[in-house]
Amino acid sequence: IKAPIVFGDLWDIYASGKNLDLNDRKNKKTLSRWKSFMDFVGDEVLTNQTINDGLRAWVNAQRGRDVQDQTLKRELGVIRAVLNYARQAKALDLQWVIPQIDIKTEEKQRPVISKEDYRKFWELIQDETEIKYRPWKEFVFTILCQSSTILSELMRLERKDIHLNGETAYINLYDTELKTKDRKRIVPLPFRTDRLKELLEKMDEGQESALPASLVQVTGNKLEWVTSESNINRQLNDYMKMCDSERQGYTTYSTRHSFKLYLQIAGINHLDILFLAGWAGNNIPSDMLKHYGRQGIGDPEMVKRLEVAVRSAMHFLNERDGKVVQLYKS
After folding, report:
1. Which of 153, 157, 152, 145 lies closest to 189 in space, CA to CA?
2. How many other C-beta atoms are found inside a 10 Å radius of the C-beta of residue 71?
């Protein structure tokens, strides 16, 4: 007679079956969300009733949290994934009903950085007399302002993946650990290439990572912040506040959102936008581009095409146009 399966067995079934690396930040978060469900179900034996009761108890308890409905739906998705995997792996004759979470709260609108604020910020990040200035901050912002990259991607960026000496400068994110596999892509860098070279040299302490060892460290086989991502984000977001003229709440992620908008405004082909930004998705164009992108890494014409698209969309960052607004400190 087989021993009955209890809720406490499910995580091990899921983690071992998926071969999860529990040192990975994303997997740690997944485990944390599962544990929040375990707080309600304990080590009960799995039955239709205990699963349904546990799901509803968890959902009702979350209503007291100050979180958006979209967040609850994502967290519930983790719980459902663990349950579904165990049912399939162990051929469990169980059926349950996932509680419906109606989306009542509006998704937070991310502010778009205005062209004027972009220009101001573009000047500020080079001002070495500013008390907040650090070479690594200028390096990070110089890339964020002209691309779809996010902070965690630049943290994991290695020097071997930065190509600044060819006709078209770019970053290769195909071999970098990313938030999702859909975001593996080529990132053209049409502006301030020479300055990026200087900053890389300034930060060179013999490390493989682009950023200095005082900021990132190797843990296992992965690069991680020496302090925490929230601390780094706070430092960078404080910098951005200095050019947030309308107090819209600019953050480092605002550059990615704004980059997409300016590509659209410039009339860039939507397939090129998908390619440039690596926006996650399972649609056919996205899958097609992921495949073509891997094949086209060494194709100078493809990289040049993307560079032209970025230069067109973010033209207001081109200092040679003579249109850069001078930032005067008050």
Report:
1. 145
2. 13
Q: Is 135 helix (H, G, I), strand (E, B) or coil?
A: helix
Half-sphere exposure of 263 (CA within 13 A, CB side): 25
229, HSE (Cβ side, Cα atoms, 13 Å): 12
Q: What is the pTM of this model?
A: 0.67
Give the model confidence (pLDDT) of 69-88 as tens digits. Answer: 777 888 888 999 999 999 99
DSSP H or E run through 222: strand 222-225
Q: Residue for token digits 């309308």?
A: 246
Which tokens sit at 160? 């071997």
Instruction: Indicate the length of the chain as a whole number.
Output: 330
Q: Which residues contact 15 (CB under 8 A, 6 or more apart)?
A: 22, 27, 31
pLDDT (tens digit per residue) in 240-297 = 888 888 888 898 889 999 999 999 999 998 888 888 877 544 454 455 455 555 555 5
Residues 6 or more apart in contact with residue 77 via CB below 8 angstroms? none
The residue whose two tokens read 């706070």 is 234
